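Pair request: fold both.
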Amino acid sequence: MHGNLSVKLLSIRYKTDFIIPEQYFMTINWEPAIGDPTPIGWFIVFAYFVAAILCFRSAITANAKSIDFRTAANLEQYFWFTAAILLILLGINKQLDLQSLFTEVARVIAKLQGWYDNRRNYQLLFIEGLGIFTLAVGVGILWLLRRTDVWVKIALFGFCCLGAFVVVRAASFHHVDQFLGEEILGWRWNWILELSGIGVIAMACLAYLRKPRPYR
């Protein structure tokens, strides 16, 4: 499996036409498999898909009459459909654990370029840069959705929480991983944080579905 992965990744080239040596990719510790076959792992996947179904129902309930995104109803429908697709992808990624592949490839490149020993500084820069970018995008989306229902904005907040969780996990800070692995009342913090984001989105969907639609 690692050999096949290496062949694919050997196509990565830099502007200097330098080819990444195959032996570096042989050290990648990742393969397509079920990442978390535990009951709680499958429960989180189930939660993602339930939230996605609720988002689809919310999109249908939005009562959009056209594809004109200037109206609140159409913006809400577009948001809920997009949210549903993202939740399905996150649910699939929960078991494929693609962010771990990203981390492994970044580790290989860091060793090849000689800055692996200084990786913590680069990780901080990555987190800060991505955080600023995510904040800017979030503010932009919030402005775009400014006329929409309050529950749409709450669902957006839930997505921000999930995005922050995924980014922090992908950065792979040892002390952060250690914290996420700690337990409180038998529940790990990574379970609590991930399910909290999903729960906020699901709650927003349920509240949105219960409200009468004023758009006619």
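--- second member of the pair ---
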Amino acid sequence: MVLSGSDQSEAGLSVVGVGDVTADILVYIANRPPVAPYDRLNTLVPLRAGEISDIVEKTGNHWRKIFNLYAKLGYFLTLKNALAIEDRSVSEDGPGAFSGSRREGLTVSLPEITGRTGVELQSWKGLQSRKELQCWKECQSWQEYRDHFLLQAGSRQALLFSEPVSSASEITNQACRVVMGKQYAQSLGVANWFDDWNMIDEAFSISRRGRMILCPYFDYRQLSNDKLDHLVRLVTTLI
């Protein structure tokens, strides 16, 4: 998705929220921060460093959990992306390929993600040139990822307060669309939008034709660590 200025739209519908105009992960939420200027937004704008902290300070624990879980989702997706690239590089070049000028020599220690033990990730020049992986230089935890990367320009993520388009013919990009919360999904009537819904379990459903995932609300009790891991796997199949 590429949206800019007054042309911000999805199939002619106004796109409203916070995040990157080139987002390929779109998370839809029924509410918005009840504080200016977010309560009056009528377009899509990127967040700046420190803005999430300011929102949380003004609105409380509810929005802290939403941003924290979105940060874990993005952080874990980036990790999986990097490890997939690493696996492809090893497969193509052989086990002894990372030596000499080929190897950057920068080891980033990743702490526990969604309750699991961290891993060591080798970062190479080829990866660091990609915007989505530049955050590894500064972000050694999902908290740092949240504060310095989440929903900012270049993050390729958006949190949208406007409704998603309701038919496959209206989808104009290859973004993965995540509708947060069963009640919101029911109020939108998404079950009638596409004919290929696959109900994974009580918490998740996916439509590949609609490039859409229905998931629990971003709350620690509803979106537990195991469910967050499941959401990461589902999103990976659509991006």
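Observation on the second member. DSSP finds six helices and twelve strands in the chain.
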